[in-house]
From TrEMBL:
<dbReference type="GO" id="GO:0006950">
    <property type="term" value="P:response to stress"/>
</dbReference>
<dbReference type="GO" id="GO:0005737">
    <property type="term" value="C:cytoplasm"/>
</dbReference>
<dbReference type="Pfam" id="PF14561">
    <property type="entry name" value="TPR_20"/>
</dbReference>
<protein>
    <submittedName>
        <fullName>Thioredoxin</fullName>
    </submittedName>
</protein>
<keyword id="KW-0813">Transport</keyword>
<dbReference type="InterPro" id="IPR017937">
    <property type="entry name" value="Thioredoxin_CS"/>
</dbReference>
<dbReference type="GO" id="GO:0015035">
    <property type="term" value="F:protein-disulfide reductase activity"/>
</dbReference>
<dbReference type="InterPro" id="IPR013766">
    <property type="entry name" value="Thioredoxin_domain"/>
</dbReference>
<keyword id="KW-1015">Disulfide bond</keyword>
<dbReference type="Pfam" id="PF00085">
    <property type="entry name" value="Thioredoxin"/>
</dbReference>
<keyword id="KW-0676">Redox-active center</keyword>
<keyword id="KW-0249">Electron transport</keyword>
<feature type="domain" description="Thioredoxin">
    <location>
        <begin position="1"/>
        <end position="114"/>
    </location>
</feature>
<dbReference type="InterPro" id="IPR011990">
    <property type="entry name" value="TPR-like_helical_dom_sf"/>
</dbReference>
<dbReference type="InterPro" id="IPR036249">
    <property type="entry name" value="Thioredoxin-like_sf"/>
</dbReference>
Amino acid sequence: MNQPQSYVFDVRLNDFQRFVIDNSFEVPVLVDFWADWCEPCRTLGPMLERLATEYAGAFLLAKINADSEQAIASHFNVRSLPTVMVVRDGQIVDMLAGVQPESEYRKRIDAYRPRAADAILDAAEQLWLSGRQDEALQTLRDGIAQEPAELDLKVALAAKLLETGEMLESGRLLRALPEAIQKTEPVPQLLAHLATLEAAAPKADFSAQEAQLATDPNAHAVRLALASELQEVGEYEAAATHFLELMRRDRSFGDDAGRKGLIALFELLGPEHPLTGTYRRRMASLLY
């Protein structure tokens, strides 16, 4: 990274390319236009410097004296001070005029700083391209364990699994994504591909268990096994129905195995999945 020792540095015209543009391909660079006569600048400057120290290289702060570097200020059409320009990958991606609450600057920094998930995705892709598919898949699984909120990792793993024909794990990942994410590319395309593969695959046959339950609805072990197998193949609503029925019939079986099965299913699907809300309400009606 082309930077002095500090995460905060003064920039002039002759080093703008090196310190601002070039560095922006690695981390976001906040460019603070200020002047000695600008009273608000005296408030903003220390705040940004403190954030730069706190973030410890996750972003860089480039300070430009708009009076002594008028050519830069004019080029970027800076009309008032202070003005903070956010540069990422060589482009201006955001700009804030005047002194804003600290939270606004944090929001911009967090939006553009490198994520741990990005490094994981890059490492997995390099492994995949070099033919080390099992290592790539494990890298993504480990990444999900480390960064469970990063949905990009789950989508990437699901996509790679589909390429290897692993429908079950891929389906669990994709169908557990929030509904809004399921409507955002590439997820709809992946779900369509999954549906095609599932339609061509031999169907699991649960007719024996279903016939046994039709004869003996209180065959709780059979019902629990069926619910678990249905969940395994992605038949989540059918699985939830059997877990709920087991809970309704016998709370004592398997130490409330029906309720435990539903809770585990909710965790798999996530709080935004429509089945989670529906069956939480139905479960609650049995509890209270």
